[in-house]
Amino acid sequence: MTQDAWLPIPPDEFTELPAGLDYLFWDGGQEFPGDPADCAVYVVPYMQRQAVKVRPLQGMRNVRLIQTLTAGVDDMIAAKDHIVPGVQLCNARGVHEASTAELALALTLASLRGIPGFVRAQQQEHWKSGFHPALADRNALIVGYGAIGEAIEDRLVPFELARVARVARSGRASARGPVHPLTELPHLLPEADVVILSTPLTDTTRGLVDAEFLARMKDGALLVNVARGPVVDTKALLAELESGRITAALDVTDPEPLPAGHPLWQAPGVLISPHVGGPTSAFLPRAKRLVTEQLNRFVNREPLRNVILTTGSAAG
Question: What whole-number distance in Å separates Cα of residue 71 and Cα of residue 16?
Answer without folding.
Answer: 24
